[in-house]
Design brief:
Blueprint (H helix, E strand, L loop, with lengths): L16 H11 L18 H19 L13 H13 L1 H4 L7 E3 L8 E12 L5 E11 L5 E3 L1 H12 L2 E2 L1 H16 L3 E10 L14 E8 H4 L1 H13 L1
Parallel strand pairs: 2-5
Antiparallel strand pairs: 1-4, 2-3, 3-6, 6-7
Helix pairs in contact: 2-3, 5-6
Bound molecules: guanosine-5'-triphosphate.
The site of guanosine-5'-triphosphate has 10 residues, from α6.
């Protein structure tokens, strides 16, 4: 006799929130890769629905891992916790709009190198969803006619971009694009160093390697002395 298992009871037999959001994204011709922000196509109340949907699916994953979430006091609330962690914390940069960024005119027409850092960040790799922990430095050669942004906003924008499943090469480019769009500097440099837990906790299980990526744009590409100043001052930061 065939051992047919009943389909798990699902509260999502109707169109789910993720179905609706996906349909909207496709209609708008938008990508929804792991590191894309989709906040503008999520309607009011849908984040609550998404949280419940992820909880339900996560409970199924735990079931597939043969963990008895009904009788294990430690994992009984895990599906709900993981859903909240993904949507409201570690991947919040996908579901939340960009933080408000105050800008003000460059009244003193500053056009000397400024460096912000180290800014600590937390992310996760798109491949295994393992943590990535790192720090970065941003070098800016401001444009005398463009606006400046508040110092704390560099860290806030960085957190917004890093709180998504990422690969480091794309994360550093995304951050550079976002900063260029907002402050239109004459030059922008970023150095990012990160520790990838997919190489520590699992896989090769090597404690040592740190991945370093850098981006140099505008004046930092053309002016070797400026580039050197940034790299030297960063070491002292
Ligand atoms: N280029 C790049 N690679 C990354 C990053 N984060 C993780 N990786 C690597 O991406 C690879 C994941 O793809 P696969 O090689 O298919 O995965 P795997 O077979 O589980 O690999 P192992 O980690 O070697 O066990 C691993 O080599 C990771 O170390 C990143 O930010 N950039």
């Amino acid at each position: 006799m065939l051992n047919t298992l009943p389909a798990p009871a699902s509260p999502f037999n109707e169109e789910s929130a993720s179905d609706r959001i996906r349909a909207r994204l496709r209609k708008a011709g938008r990508m929804f890769r792991a590191n894309d922000n989709i906040a503008d196509l999520i309607d009011d109340g849908e984040l609550d629905e998404l949280r419940s949907e992820v909880e339900h699916r996560m409970k199924e994953v735990l079931g597939a891992l043969v963990i008895d979430t009904d009788n294990d006091h430690n994992s009984a609330g895990t599906a709900r916790r993981v859903a909240k962690m993904f949507i409201d914390e570690v991947f919040a940069g996908r579901y939340r709009a960009a933080p408000p960024v105050t800008s003000f005119p460059n009244v003193s027409r500053l056009n000397e190198l400024m460096i912000v850092g180290p800014i600590r960040f937390r992310s996760a790799c798109s491949h295994h969803l393992c943590p990535i922990m790192g720090k970065l430095w941003i070098g800016i050669l401001p444009n005398t006619d463009a606006n400046l942004i508040g110092l704390s906003k560099y860290a806030r924008l960085c957190d917004w971009i890093m709180s998504r499943p990422q690969i480091q090469e794309e994360a550093v480019t995304m951050l550079a694009d976002e900063l260029e769009r907002r402050i239109r500097p004459d030059g922008l440099a970023i150095v990012m160093e990160a520790d990838h837990f997919c190489m520590r906790w699992r896989g090769v299980k090597d404690e040592q390697p740190v991945m370093t990526s850098s981006i140099m744009r505008g004046a930092f590409l053309k002016d070797e002395a400026l580039r050197r100043d940034f790299l030297e001052l960063r070491n002292g930061a």
